[in-house]
Amino acid sequence: MPYTANIIGATGLVGKLLVSLLLNDSECQELHILVRRPSGFSHPKLKEHRIDFDQDLDYIKAISGHVLFSCLGTTLAQAGSKQAQRKVDYDYQLKAARAAKVNGLQNYVLVSSPYAKLHARNYYRHMKAELEVAIEKLQFGHTTILQPGGLIGKREKPRKGETMGLTVMKWLTENLPFLRKYSPIDSGLVAKAMYHAYKRPSEMTLRRVSWTQINELAQ
């Protein structure tokens, strides 16, 4: 069935791969991406919206169709402060989701984290859980929340200390089974899982997809 898709976070590690999957899907008639600066993508089906991420109306004008894929994110080191990180990881993604709801979209797919925990003392874990709860309250027809571990892939701007951190986590999760859900995962698998989450909808209105389930959904 023909559909129109939207992505916030299209220039990131997962987002770029998801763009490719959607543009190569003959059923995807249009792909809208929300960016702050030129993305470098070029395709007849692609509509690039350069918006002010702080302006709610910009999201409403840009988003339309059937599904919103949300894979925007940064690190504390990149953002420079907790407040700046929250703007990207929480505020902007929630603004996009609210605009999608206002505009009548029924499907929403989010990349979150296995670390999300509402009552965690850790700032990052609490923030991720807050976003999940806020998204749930919007009550889309179908909401999928993916919870991958660290993302493996080639970034245009490598994150400081990320390679070493992923190496350590990979060793820990391979040797300590109870940490398996935190295992690093290839960004391509996450992109495919996001794509299939929409193309193969669950009967549930809300589903969370763990590390092992992401591998299965990506196939």
Automatic annotation (TrEMBL):
Q: Name one Pfam family in it.
A: NAD_binding_10
Query: At the top level of its lineage, which domain of life is listed?
Result: Bacteria
Mark the transmembrane ranges: none
Q: Which InterPro entries match?
A: NAD(P)-bd_dom (IPR016040), NAD(P)-bd_dom_sf (IPR036291)
SUPFAM superfamilies membership: NAD(P)-binding Rossmann-fold domains
Tell me where in this chain the NAD(P)-binding domain is found: 9-155
Name of this chain's protein? NAD(P)-binding domain-containing protein
Organism, as annotated:
Sediminicola luteus
